[in-house]
Design goal:
Keywords: Metal-binding, Methyltransferase, S-adenosyl-L-methionine, Transferase, Zinc, Zinc-finger
Number of domains: 3
Radius of gyration: 26 Å
Number of strands: 12
Largest sheet: 3 strands, antiparallel
Bound molecules: zinc ion
Structural class: mainly alpha
Oligomer: single chain
CATH architecture of the largest domain: Beta Complex
InterPro entries: SET-MYND_domain_protein, SET_dom, SET_dom_sf, SMYD4_SET, TPR-like_helical_dom_sf, Znf_MYND
Protein name: Protein-lysine N-methyltransferase SMYD4
GO molecular function: histone deacetylase binding; N-methyltransferase activity; protein methyltransferase activity; S-adenosylmethionine-dependent methyltransferase activity; zinc ion binding
Strand content: 5-15%
Helix content: 40-55%
Strand order of the largest sheet: 3-11-10
CATH superfamily of the largest domain: SET domain
Length: 530
């Protein structure tokens, strides 16, 4: 829900801030350019006493909004009841979830769960309905209303067992016997190599057929992009799992989870700190960047994670993240200036509100440096993931950002030999072309030769990732593919294959095969048989 306001991406927001601070940058430019490390950049602002005092007084003036209030919970629940009576079940459900996030007393919590179970029942989410009924009873649902809830439990149990076959999204799992001994999330068909031209990169250690799975990776960290999602109250902030009966953080109204397990894990690892600054972040500048929260989380994890010296390349360890490229010296200085200025203010906020440095006994200097570095890593390496969920009546999409350390080892090609898709936040990488033993495996960071022309692709790759692509499509300047989706039918595909077969000089080798095989793989994935 965006209230019809324009939703800005982080890149657009940053551009607006750059314009806003331009006069200040021009004044500081020569001094700032002398700072070559992230710690020095942060200190450039943090050593300006007047600036620090100004930010501190701004923080003091912010009145964090009330996060738990039975009065507010009851108001929202009643609004939910109106929507429910109007048969707007989904709107009712969201209002009940918001009511839950404000509810303070057991009574208010239990009634909100009870009411939400009704909306879930009518939406056909019987399993979720039963879970909410249990939660309502656990929180001491009023006895005077219990009869209704017992009846709903009976009806939902029956409906649940009577329902037609449910299509569950299947996630591929690498069989034990095919696991890669040196890369945690990979199949035993790739390896990491390094050279001067490509840095560390992924190479096939045997011939790989089209459609074969190369890796099943889980992110080190995710960030739900609430503003970009169609429904921010329907996703778990910890695992991005889609969920119609999320449970709120016990302290704030800004984090929701699929289960008590995810809530406890997030709270233990980072949310207990994040929760303390969330009410201030947006108000300090009137904007909130995803990469601030992401960076705070990751910096906290970096400080607290247990050391593990295993030689295997692990997706669940900070060490791999710490080796990712941030391009801090390749970014335009003006962009770095604004990013640092804002980060320094957030750093003051963290110091004021979390008292983190006493607890961890960490050096502030290290924290400052990492806090900025992780934002740079995030800008370069975070992957946007979108997934669709629902039943036959309701569906919705989530946009989240995730950081996968293995994904970041794949180099880019505009004509890649692998592709990826996600289920929840699990990423599956497959071959989109046959890959010979010893060949490098490429992924696309976004631009494909078929959709964008060479100039557009090169401009984007240079701006975001600071490199010039030398893939075959770029070297040979392949033309963009233009067709309207409506014309893609069997006849059309047959014609394409015929044309490609007739004109051997035009298509890149493997193209015909990959077209046919690609369709087969897509079909098998959609059919759930792969
Ligand atoms: Zn979860
Ligand atoms: Zn919270
Ligand atoms: Zn290219």
């Amino acid at each position: 829900m965006t209230d019809g306001k324009k939703v800005y991406t982080d890149t657009e927001l940053l551009e607006l801030q750059i314009q806003r601070y331009r006069p200040r940058y021009l004044k500081d430019e020569s001094e700032f350019k002398k700072c070559t490390t992230n710690a020095a950049r942060m200190n450039f602002f943090l050593n300006q006493e007047e600036e620090v005092a100004h930010i501190k007084s701004k923080i003091q003036q912010i009145k964090p909004h009330v996060t738990k209030s039975d009065v507010k919970a009851s108001e929202l629940r009643k609004l939910g009841n109106v929507q429910f009576q109007n048969k707007s079940d989904k709107d009712a459900l969201i209002l009940y979830t918001q009511s839950l996030s404000f509810a303070k007393s057991d009574e208010e919590v239990s009634v909100a769960y009870g009411n939400r179970s009704a909306a879930l029942f009518y939406m056909g989410f019987y399993e979720e309905c039963l879970a909410d009924i249990d939660r309502a009873f656990r929180h001491g649902y009023p006895e005077s209303l219990s009869a209704k809830l017992f009846k709903r439990k009976k009806d939902a149990t029956k409906a649940y067992s009577d329902r037609k076959k449910v299509v569950k999204v299947k996630t591929y799992e690498i069989p034990q016997s095919e696991m890669n001994p040196s890369i945690q999330s990979a199949r035993n068909c790739i390896e990491i190599q390094a050279n001067e031209k490509y840095g560390r990169h992924i190479v096939a250690s045997r011939d790989i057929a089209i459609g074969e799975v190369l890796a099943v990776d889980n992110p080190y960290l995710v960030e739900l992009q609430a503003d970009m999602s169609s429904d921010p109250f329907l996703f778990c902030c910890e695992c991005l799992k889609h969920c119609y009966n999320v449970i709120p953080c016990l302290n704030c109204n800004e984090a929701y989870y699929c289960t008590e397990i995810c809530r406890a894990k997030a709270f233990q690892n980072y949310h207990k700190y994040e929760c303390l600054i969330l009410p201030y972040v947006g108000q300090l500048f009137g904007i909130k960047f995803d990469f601030w929260l992401f960076s705070l989380k990751i910096t906290l994890l970096a400080m607290t994670e247990e050391k593990n010296d295993e030689t295997m390349y692990r997706s669940d360890r900070y060490k791999e993240i710490s080796e990712l490229e941030g391009h801090s010296n390749a970014d335009p200085p003006e962009q770095t200036y604004v990013l640092t200025l804002l980060s320094a203010s957030i750093f003051i906020l963290i110091k004021e509100k979390i008292k983190i440095f006493k607890e961890f006994e960490v050096f502030e200097e290290k924290f400052k440096e990492l806090f900025l570095y992780h934002q740079q890593v995030f800008k370069v390496n975070a992957v946007t993931i979108v997934s669709w969920h629902g039943n036959d009546k309701f569906y919705t999409s989530v946009t989240g950002l995730a950081l996968y350390s293995l994904y970041s080892l794949f180099n880019h090609s505009c004509y890649p030999n692998t592709f990826w898709n996600t289920s929840g936040s699990t990423m599956v990488v497959r071959a989109s072309l046959p890959i010979k033993k010893g060949e490098q495996c490429f992924i696309s960071y976004g631009p494909y030769f078929a959709y964008d022309n060479k100039t557009e692709r090169q401009e984007r790759l240079q701006r975001l990732y600071r490199f010039t692509c030398e893939c075959r499509a770029c070297q040979e300047n392949w033309p963009k593919v233009t067709f309207s989706p409506a014309s893609v039918d069997c006849k059309f595909i047959k014609q394409v294959i015929k044309k490609l077969t007739e004109n051997q000089a035009l298509p890149p080798p493997g193209y015909i095969l990959s077209l046919r095989k690609g369709l087969e793989v897509a079909y098998r994935i959609l059919d759930g048989t792969s």
